Amino acid sequence: MEEKQGQPRRKIIHIDMDAFYASVEQRDNPEYCGKPLVVGGAPDARGVVATASYEARKFGVRSAMSSRRALQLCPHAIFVRPRFAAYKEVSQHIREIFGRYTDLIEPLSLDEAYLDVTEDKLGIGSAIDIAKAIKQAIKDELDLTASAGVSVNKFVAKIASDMEKPDGLTFIGPSSLASFIEKLPVEKFWGVGKVTADKMKKLGLFTGADLKQLSLEQITRHFGKAGAFYYNIVRGIDEREVQPHRETKSVGAEDTFPYDLSSLEEMEAELDKIALLVHQRLVKHQLKGRTITLKVKYSDFRQITRSQSYPDGLDDLQTIAATAKSLLRATDVEESPVRLLGITVSNFTTPEIREKGPSGQLELF
Ligand SMILES: [Mg+2]
């Protein structure tokens, strides 16, 4: 692992609560303890699983799956609606626990955050000891468990926190960093989604070790700008800082329909409504974006996104609606019914606005 001269190696912790919503429900409702529990929408109302308890996961129930599918997999599961107010309260409490050790906290969601503890407030020094203390405080004060990943950068810390769930603590230090990354399947690499992973596999790239064989020029040729990032992280270099105030990266709106839409006319009418919302939000926050992204979820839960970028930032309703519609027409929506449409504007030209809400992102939704 290369190190910049004169700069201390960073100590990064990624904390992730275990089966967060489901664990809060089991804590508050002892009758759910030890039982397969699904927090999310009802199976008979096109609901989606937000979080499943570990007992339900044994049956294959996963987040973002339809509740109907979850019920098929685990017929005796208990379904409950999410109580976001309760989760936010817990989230604020864990944020307060983190704040005892560092002010460099970057929340990713209600139950997940990066902490930079290169210099911790209490002078503990050991990132592993800090992670242990945080886990213990979460257990003592909230009666919940979290998993922690400790490493020298965000990329590895985040993967590490997922390795020994629940109630895990995984440390990937400088000496094990290279071998750890070499063994990682490409899907685990930051920013590698299904499409990129498939492309990598077609090129015979299955692990970090395979990616490491490519020169910067080769990897950039295949994967563009992202290639340079992969080139670095596969060598353990991830300079992304823990950002205490995450900038707003996008503004969007989406709608799930009570029934599947199959006519283009209906879909375009819905896009007009969604575009109006997005436009209002952009104007309200004085943002102009260069990239417009359309999201389509089909009735079979397949999801696609299509984007178009412009040289200058924009916030006008007409362009947003027209772009979304032309992106829609270029998909195969006419062959498959659609259950959800969404529009996002990103790549802002105006100065970023700072975080307001506890979720770490400006709360526009
Ligand atoms: Mg979690």
From TrEMBL:
Its cofactor is Mg(2+). It catalyses: DNA(n) + a 2'-deoxyribonucleoside 5'-triphosphate = DNA(n+1) + diphosphate. Mg(2+) binds at residues 16, 111. InterPro entries: DNA/RNA_pol_sf, DNA_pol_Y-fam_lit_finger_sf, DNA_pol_Y-fam_little_finger, DNA_polymerase-Y, DNApol_IV, PolY_HhH_motif, Rev_trsase/Diguanyl_cyclase, UmuC. NCBIfam families: PRK02406.1. This is DNA polymerase IV. It is found in: Cytoplasm. Keywords: Cytoplasm, DNA damage, DNA repair, DNA replication, DNA-binding, DNA-directed DNA polymerase, Magnesium, Metal-binding, Mutator protein, Nucleotidyltransferase, Transferase. Monomer. It comes from the Bacteria. One of its GO terms (cellular component) is cytosol. HAMAP family: DNApol_IV. Belongs to the DNA polymerase type-Y family.
